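Please describe our next protein:
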Amino acid sequence: MSLVFFSFMIPASNSNMTKASSIYQFKVSSLDGGTIDFSKFKGKKILVVNTASKCGFTPQYAQLEELYKKFGDKLVIIGFPANNFASQEPGSNEDIKAFCTKNYGVTFPMAAKVSVKGDDIAPIYKWLTEKSENGVMDADIKWNFTKFLLDEHGVLLTKFDSKVTPLSDEILAYLK
């Protein structure tokens, strides 16, 4: 009696071919009209934060800026203004930039306003929030100032809800 083995090659679907394997494959528009290229941040941790100018958590901008100045050699912070929660970011990109500069002296990179959930979710946020995209976890964004931390290789480490402040021990533990 002889055995016959068959091997089948199943081609990958097109949707798998377009998925980003790390955050480094993303480029997004910046608040001032330029481009933020995530591949330029290789070797640094990345903290991605959805922001809003008219939110109870808006004062976190000050701590984000402090964190950026203190750990800028090994951490980059990218703010993503979004109007998904109670219309708390109604302004234009120009309005948001002026607000952040005047009130909080923000110097860390800020992306152009995006949607962080729903049918019009920005591709980078789809990647951050879906395990099928990022390979690590599903994450729900419940409000403004939700934070995603990525390691020096662009791999998602964890998510912090809005109430976790930028200078909290929970975040600082990853930067020591």
